[in-house]
Amino acid sequence: MGMHSTIEAASYLKREPRIALRCEAVLVEEDGHSLDVVVTDVSRDGFKLESRAELEVGSQVVLLVTKMAPVKALIRWTRGSEAGGVFMESAAL
Predict the structure, then answer these.
(1) Which of 23, 31, 33, 83 could potentially form a cystine with 39 if both were Cys, beta carbons 3.0 to 4.6 Å apart?
(2) How deeply is 61 buried, as exposed, middle or buried, from its count of CB atoms within 10 A (0-12, 13-18, 19+)?
(3) pTM exceeds cut of 0.70
(4) What are the pLDDT digits (tens) for 40-79?
Protein backbone atom coordinates (compact mmCIF):
# COMPACT_ATOMS: atom_id res chain seq x y z
CA MET A 1 0.00 0.00 0.00
CA GLY A 2 1.73 3.14 -1.22
CA MET A 3 1.57 6.65 0.17
CA HIS A 4 -1.06 7.62 -2.43
CA SER A 5 -3.48 5.00 -1.08
CA THR A 6 -2.93 6.19 2.49
CA ILE A 7 -3.74 9.77 1.50
CA GLU A 8 -6.90 8.61 -0.30
CA ALA A 9 -7.94 6.60 2.76
CA ALA A 10 -7.37 9.60 5.04
CA SER A 11 -9.44 11.90 2.82
CA TYR A 12 -12.16 9.24 2.65
CA LEU A 13 -12.46 9.23 6.45
CA LYS A 14 -12.82 13.02 6.57
CA ARG A 15 -15.60 13.19 3.98
CA GLU A 16 -18.84 15.00 4.64
CA PRO A 17 -21.89 12.86 5.36
CA ARG A 18 -23.31 11.40 2.16
CA ILE A 19 -26.99 11.05 1.34
CA ALA A 20 -28.04 7.99 -0.70
CA LEU A 21 -30.68 8.71 -3.34
CA ARG A 22 -31.67 7.89 -6.90
CA CYS A 23 -32.26 11.09 -8.83
CA GLU A 24 -32.40 11.39 -12.62
CA ALA A 25 -30.22 14.20 -13.95
CA VAL A 26 -28.50 15.41 -17.10
CA LEU A 27 -24.75 15.81 -17.32
CA VAL A 28 -23.45 18.29 -19.91
CA GLU A 29 -19.87 17.63 -20.99
CA GLU A 30 -17.35 20.31 -22.02
CA ASP A 31 -18.12 19.74 -25.72
CA GLY A 32 -21.83 20.39 -25.08
CA HIS A 33 -22.84 16.73 -25.34
CA SER A 34 -25.49 15.83 -22.76
CA LEU A 35 -26.00 12.47 -21.06
CA ASP A 36 -28.87 11.13 -18.99
CA VAL A 37 -27.43 9.99 -15.64
CA VAL A 38 -28.71 8.87 -12.24
CA VAL A 39 -27.20 10.54 -9.17
CA THR A 40 -26.88 7.81 -6.53
CA ASP A 41 -25.38 9.74 -3.64
CA VAL A 42 -24.47 13.28 -2.77
CA SER A 43 -22.60 15.24 -0.11
CA ARG A 44 -21.85 18.90 0.38
CA ASP A 45 -18.68 18.53 -1.71
CA GLY A 46 -19.55 16.00 -4.40
CA PHE A 47 -21.62 13.19 -5.79
CA LYS A 48 -21.65 9.69 -7.28
CA LEU A 49 -23.61 8.84 -10.39
CA GLU A 50 -24.37 6.07 -12.85
CA SER A 51 -23.93 6.74 -16.57
CA ARG A 52 -24.32 4.56 -19.66
CA ALA A 53 -21.43 6.42 -21.28
CA GLU A 54 -17.92 6.35 -19.89
CA LEU A 55 -16.85 9.67 -18.41
CA GLU A 56 -13.32 11.02 -18.50
CA VAL A 57 -11.48 11.67 -15.23
CA GLY A 58 -10.56 15.35 -14.98
CA SER A 59 -13.33 16.55 -17.29
CA GLN A 60 -15.42 19.55 -16.30
CA VAL A 61 -19.16 19.02 -16.53
CA VAL A 62 -22.40 20.76 -15.63
CA LEU A 63 -24.92 18.78 -13.59
CA LEU A 64 -28.57 19.59 -14.26
CA VAL A 65 -31.08 18.35 -11.73
CA THR A 66 -34.78 19.28 -11.96
CA LYS A 67 -35.72 22.39 -9.95
CA MET A 68 -32.06 23.20 -9.26
CA ALA A 69 -29.68 25.70 -10.79
CA PRO A 70 -26.99 24.11 -13.01
CA VAL A 71 -23.89 23.17 -11.01
CA LYS A 72 -20.33 23.00 -12.37
CA ALA A 73 -18.41 19.90 -11.33
CA LEU A 74 -15.20 17.98 -12.00
CA ILE A 75 -15.18 14.21 -12.60
CA ARG A 76 -12.71 12.70 -10.10
CA TRP A 77 -13.02 8.94 -10.69
CA THR A 78 -14.77 6.35 -12.82
CA ARG A 79 -15.41 2.64 -12.27
CA GLY A 80 -17.42 0.92 -15.00
CA SER A 81 -20.81 2.65 -15.21
CA GLU A 82 -20.18 4.64 -12.01
CA ALA A 83 -18.38 7.96 -11.67
CA GLY A 84 -17.74 10.42 -8.89
CA GLY A 85 -17.30 14.14 -9.00
CA VAL A 86 -16.68 17.19 -6.87
CA PHE A 87 -18.63 20.41 -7.06
CA MET A 88 -16.62 23.39 -8.33
CA GLU A 89 -19.10 25.78 -6.75
CA SER A 90 -21.46 25.42 -3.84
CA ALA A 91 -24.61 23.47 -4.66
CA ALA A 92 -27.91 24.09 -2.94
CA LEU A 93 -28.99 20.49 -2.64
Answers:
(1) 23
(2) buried
(3) yes
(4) 999 989 999 999 998 999 999 999 988 888 999 999 999 9
Quick: pLDDT tens for 10-49. 445 555 688 888 999 999 999 999 999 999 999 989 999 9
Task: Write down the domain spans for the chain.
Answer: 18-87
CATH number of this structure's domain 18-87: 2.40.10.220
Strand partners, 50: 38, 82
Q: Are 46 and 84 in contact (CB under 8 A)?
A: yes
User: What ranges make up the beta strands (E) of the chain?
Assistant: 19-29, 34-42, 46-51, 60-65, 71-79, 82-87
Alpha helices in 1-93 (DSSP H): 3-13
Distance CA 36, CA 64 (A): 10
41, 21 Cβ separation under 8 angstroms: yes
